[in-house]
Amino acid sequence: MVSATLTKHSDLDGQAPFKGCQENFKQPEGLVGKNPGRKQRLSAHDVLFYEGDKAERLYEVVRGVMMLYKLLPDGRRQVVYILREGDMLGFSNRDFFDCTAEALTEVELQVFEGREISTSPMMQHYVNRCLLSQMENLHEHTVLLGRKSALERVSTFLMGLVPNRGGHGCEGPLEEGQPDTRTVELSMTRQEIADYLGLTIETVSRVISQLKRRGLIKVEKQDSIHISNICGICQLTGMH
Amino acid sequence: MVSATLTKHSDLDGQAPFKGCQENFKQPEGLVGKNPGRKQRLSAHDVLFYEGDKAERLYEVVRGVMMLYKLLPDGRRQVVYILREGDMLGFSNRDFFDCTAEALTEVELQVFEGREISTSPMMQHYVNRCLLSQMENLHEHTVLLGRKSALERVSTFLMGLVPNRGGHGCEGPLEEGQPDTRTVELSMTRQEIADYLGLTIETVSRVISQLKRRGLIKVEKQDSIHISNICGICQLTGMH
DNA sequence: TCAGCAATTTGATTTGGAACAATCGGATTT
DNA sequence: AAATCCGATTGTTCCAAATCAAATTGCTGA
């Protein structure tokens, strides 16, 4: 069922001039008929495609986390985007991918062939919505890379992992029966985080240790971080 | 005549799965009929819209140069995109602009109302093409901000101003009667360049002086730079 | 032509993060 | 349980770019 895969942006409706056609999202039959629903699975660190590969299909992340990155000839790497459930990848302006796509965790993908996209207005609209969302995230990340300190970068990164941030009661104790949204899974090594934030592993590690020492976070099993003081971290992002 | 305004991406055709519908670009009558062709003019440093303004129309840069930027609460600024002839702006995923748009030079814009975009497949395709192009440029700029040195940043910036770069004969003398593509107009102050490259004005100035001393460029009237040795600059971008 | 001002350049100093170098800690293997 | 491995952490030193501070250049208008 394709409607289950087109989930992430359905809450983004409004009166913007160019935002896709949300009414169609409620009736996905047109696409279901044509799309055999091909799925693809990846293990952590599998590469889906390399920069320079021929761009022939689009993918939607159904489960798991992926990253897009670019390499400089001398080996420096910059992770340019993190893709989560509902995000699409595989876009290309030219014939070839401008980034490498690699799985950070186990990943399940929905695959769309080129022709199904260009012939389906619904797909076009959904793809457009994804592009706009990615563009805004890239703008925000550009500010991080161009103007923020290491502490601000790591704090911003952590805040980005907290679901429904911006709500009130950010200091209160955990509600009974609620999932613990204050414990976030990094699903990335220190090296991957560093390459995403434009820092070195050592700097990322030092900032995390500093936040730990200040009592703002607790590190559990290195890949899982409990944010004891969300407001405190939020104040450190440079955005408040 | 709208065809004159939809120029920039016509050379980007290919077999990519999702790249707009270039055949339509040859027959722009559909759009001409509906679009009264409203134009808008800006002087240098005029703001077209502010971050947070309601997003209600799209714009195409017909002439001149603009920038998109974001501000942090303490006044730090990051220029996230430079828009030139053929580029579109005004996209929004939500109802509000995520960036401020300001003219760097005198600018002439073509204005498109929200409904004309969502009802015209041709516009949708063109907009899509623009989004994909901007996305790739943002990826490249992300690498610059995250991983490049000041010298590499400024060199990359200069190379981005050279039209048809990558051609042969980059060292040869000027052809008779050819426009001098080796003299580029910055159309930006040092502060604007610094805010684009994630540096300070002093660092930008020092790198430019260094390139001057090394005989790679000549600065004319501060806003115009003659690149005496394109290959030399190209080698400094970190990409070769 | 000459103030006056703003933008740029240049100089001196500081500093945040990189680079280099151990060490630690948890997981896996034997 | 000991050995190995690999990612993460911590310590030290170094350096590129930021910051602070003049000096210079170029532009504008009287």
Task: Quickly describe the structure.
Chains A, B: Residues 148-231 form the HTH crp-type domain. The structure is a homodimer of 240-residue chains. The first copy, chain A, is 34% helix and 21% strand.
The CATH homologous superfamily name of the largest domain in chain A equals Jelly Rolls
Strand order of the largest sheet of chain A: 1-8-3-6
Question: How many extended strands of chain A?
Answer: 11
Shape, principal axes of CA atoms of chain A: globular
> Structural class per helix/strand content of chain A?
alpha+beta
Which regions of chain A contain 5 or more consecutive residues with pLDDT less than 50? 1-34, 166-170
Question: Helix segment count of chain A?
Answer: 8
Distance between the termini of chain A: 42 Å
Number of domains of chain A: 2
CATH class of the largest domain in chain A, please? Answer: Mainly Beta
Oligomer: homodimer
CATH fold topology of the largest domain in chain A: Jelly Rolls
Q: Largest interface, with Cβ-Cβ < 8 Å?
A: A-B, 64 and 64 residues
Largest β sheet strand count, sense and barrel closure of chain A = 4 strands, antiparallel
Q: H/E order of the elements of chain A?
A: HHEEEEEEEEHHHEHHEEH
Helix coverage percent of chain A: 25-40%
Mean pLDDT of chain A: 84
- Which value, in Å, is the CA radius of gyration of chain A? 19 Å
* Beta-strand residue fraction of chain A: 15-25%
In the CATH classification, which architecture of the largest domain in chain A applies? Sandwich
InterPro entries (chains A, B): cNMP-bd_dom (IPR000595), cNMP-bd_dom_sf (IPR018490), Env_Response_Regulators (IPR050397), HTH_CRP (IPR012318), RmlC-like_jellyroll (IPR014710), Tscrpt_reg_HTH_Crp-type_CS (IPR018335), WH-like_DNA-bd_sf (IPR036388), WH_DNA-bd_sf (IPR036390)
Domain HTH crp-type (chains A, B): 148-231
Domain Cyclic nucleotide-binding (chains A, B): 46-90
Keywords (chains A, B): DNA-binding, Transcription, Transcription regulation
